[in-house]
Amino acid sequence: MSEEKLNSGSLDTDNLTEEKIQLKKPDMYRIVLLNDDYTPRDFVVWIIMRIFYKTEDESNRIMIEAHTAGKSTIGVYTFDIAKTKVSQVEQLAEKYEHPLKCILEVESGGDQG
Ligand code: TYC
Q1: What is the pLDDT of residues 57-95, one digit of tens each?
Q2: pTM for the model
Q3: How far is the CA of 40 from the centre of ligand 1 (A)?
Q4: Of 60, 62, 63, 86, which shows the fewest CB atoms inside 10 Å?
Q5: What per-residue confidence (pLDDT) applies to 109?
Q6: Is 8 part of a structural domain of the chain?
Q7: What CA–CA distances, in Å, run from 90 to 10, 12, 100, 107, 113?
Q8: Calpha distance 39→1 (Å, rounded)
Q9: Which residue lies with its CA nearest to atom 11 of ligand 1?
């Protein structure tokens, strides 16, 4: 909207609403890694590095947290990216015949913070 229109007193509120909707933050999704008794630790670390671009130290930390606490957050992403990453993990886990799983949890709705 032009400065001129903003200052003219003839503000078009329909357009204001539209702009507000366009600026809404996207819903975000947490990818949570689940522990199991069979997947080798090295494979878990390799997956985190390869799919999520984490350092080896960070990947190791996430793996150990899942191993000891049962689950660990890998990262927070928009829906499409999160779904793609989960599916990449599923494909590699299936290919190498490991039961490794990660799930999506809602981190924030669009009308929050
Ligand atoms: N618990 C597995 C083992 O002892 C290792 C592991 C860690 C598996 C984290 C999954 O998300 C996981 N081999």
Answers
A1: 999 999 999 999 999 999 999 999 999 999 999 999 999
A2: 0.80
A3: 6
A4: 60
A5: 74
A6: no
A7: 55, 49, 7, 21, 32
A8: 55
A9: 35
